[in-house]
Amino acid sequence: VISSIMVAVFLRMQIVIPMKKIIEEARRFARENKKAEYSIMMIDNTLQNHLIEVDKTAKARFDLLMKQHL
Question: N or C: fewer beta carbons within 10 Å in the chain?
Fold first, then answer.
């Protein structure tokens, strides 16, 4: 639904961002660009858990990229 790569790129640009800000950015992106999926996840009450999982995946990918870069 929400691209983990998009979040990883956002993380890479900002380096360190509080989790709440990342989740809000992902939520805004979904609300504006993935309207149907966003609405369904809101109704099913699965959006918050999805965003937390996206954040964890993005952080793991970012950490891997940083290890490979160093």
Answer: C
The Cα 58–Cα 38 span in angstroms is: 19
Could you tell me if residue 39 is left (phi over 0), alpha (psi between -120 and 50 degrees) or otherwise beta? alpha
Q: Which residues contact 23 (CB under 8 A, 6 or more apart)?
A: 48, 51, 52, 55
Tens-digit pLDDT profile for residues 16-70 = 556 677 778 888 888 898 889 888 988 888 888 888 888 888 888 888 888 887 6
H or E element in which residue 29 lies: helix 19-33
